[in-house]
Amino acid sequence: MALRTGRGQLSARRRRREARAGILFLLPDAVGLIAFVGIPMVLALIVSMFSADGFGNFRFVGMANFEHMVADDLFWRSVRVTALFVLGFVPVTFFLALGLAVLVKDKFPGVGAVRAILFLPNVLSLVVIGVLWQFMLVDKRGVLTQLGGLIGLGDVSWLGTPSLALGTLIVVSVWFTMGYQMFLFLGGLTDIPPEYLDAARIDGAGAWRRFWTVTWPLLAPTSFFVLVTSLVAAVTGVQAFDLVYVLTKGGPANATSTIVFYIYQQAFNFGDYGYAAALTAVTVIFLVIVTAVLLYVTRGGRFNADAD
């Protein structure tokens, strides 16, 4: 009994030490999250109830900024542009990155170079990426514009035509992001025990059946992470602002004005910080709700796995 009690005390002390170590490891991130995310979010929510011009002039207006948002046609247009951007960007990047990860998972001559080339855009700034693509897509003189002329597309203005500008933006965003997401999927694929696939192969399962019944379920947590981060990036990330700012500045005719770019315009072009804060608050609340729904539906990426 005394020995058992001694082991129990030792186990309790060990758990307390591990708990303290866990708290110390989490503390720097927690402090950074509170200082640079939590407090600014609370301040933005407070500012959203004021009329603020950025020069120290504040006037309490209550819910007027939110009422203005409901009647603002440009706001709803930016919501529509953002929704189209999400629908074009998230699924294409997701499945393209997954397919590339499956293709480069196994070793073959030159696989390292292929992986490096696919990841290369991520080491560059999105502003640099935007400038490079601007040179290639500029009217009449751009390389891609001239190549399009050679195959009979004529003098297409990829960034100056309202019906083409958003699609062009999505293509550039997918090209920039797919390498990073490919490596996330590659990490998930590497973690799958090869014994499971060998067992399925012995049972006579073909390549598609092995992927669908073994690989895809075990890849669910990685898929959930990629899906949520892609959604957040498409709505509020650098793709939704940096590329828009460099390539189109929201044009032509507001065809590429995403919600983040619209918030930037309200704050820094028109000096309406209160309205910009209200737009930001609504966007953050929307993302929190969507993430919570995805978390509930997929059970944190475990989908059909048992709760325990």
Automatic annotation (TrEMBL):
Residues 79-294 form the ABC transmembrane type-1 domain. It is found in: Cell membrane. One of its GO terms (biological process) is transmembrane transport. It is a multi-pass membrane protein. The chain crosses the membrane at residues 21-50, 83-104, 116-136, 156-176, 218-241, 273-297. GO terms for cellular component: plasma membrane. Its main location: membrane. Keywords: Cell membrane, Membrane, Sugar transport, Transmembrane, Transmembrane helix, Transport. InterPro entries: ABC_transporter_permease, MetI-like, MetI-like_sf. Pfam families: BPD_transp_1 (PF00528). Belongs to the binding-protein-dependent transport system permease family. This is Multiple sugar transport system permease protein. The lineage of its organism: Bacteria, Bacillati, Actinomycetota, Actinomycetes, Micrococcales.
